[in-house]
Amino acid sequence: MKIFDESAAAAARSRQAELTKPPGSLGRLEELAIFMAGWQGRERPKIDRAQALVFAGNHGVTAQGVNPFPVEVTAQMVANFRNGGAAINQLCRAAGADLSVIPLELDRPTADFTQGMAMEVADLVTAIQTGKDAVDPEADVIILGEMGIGNSTVAAALAAATFGGTAEDWVGPGTGADDRIFANKIRAVNAGLKRHKGAATAASILGSFGGREQAAICGAVIRSRELGIPLILDGFICSAAAGVLLVNDANALDHCLIGHESAEPGHRRLIAVMKKSPVVTLDMRLGEGSGAAVALLILRAALECHNGMATFAEAGIG
Amino acid sequence: MKIFDESAAAAARSRQAELTKPPGSLGRLEELAIFMAGWQGRERPKIDRAQALVFAGNHGVTAQGVNPFPVEVTAQMVANFRNGGAAINQLCRAAGADLSVIPLELDRPTADFTQGMAMEVADLVTAIQTGKDAVDPEADVIILGEMGIGNSTVAAALAAATFGGTAEDWVGPGTGADDRIFANKIRAVNAGLKRHKGAATAASILGSFGGREQAAICGAVIRSRELGIPLILDGFICSAAAGVLLVNDANALDHCLIGHESAEPGHRRLIAVMKKSPVVTLDMRLGEGSGAAVALLILRAALECHNGMATFAEAGIG
Question: Where is the active site (chains A, B) (predicted)?
Answer without folding.
Answer: 288
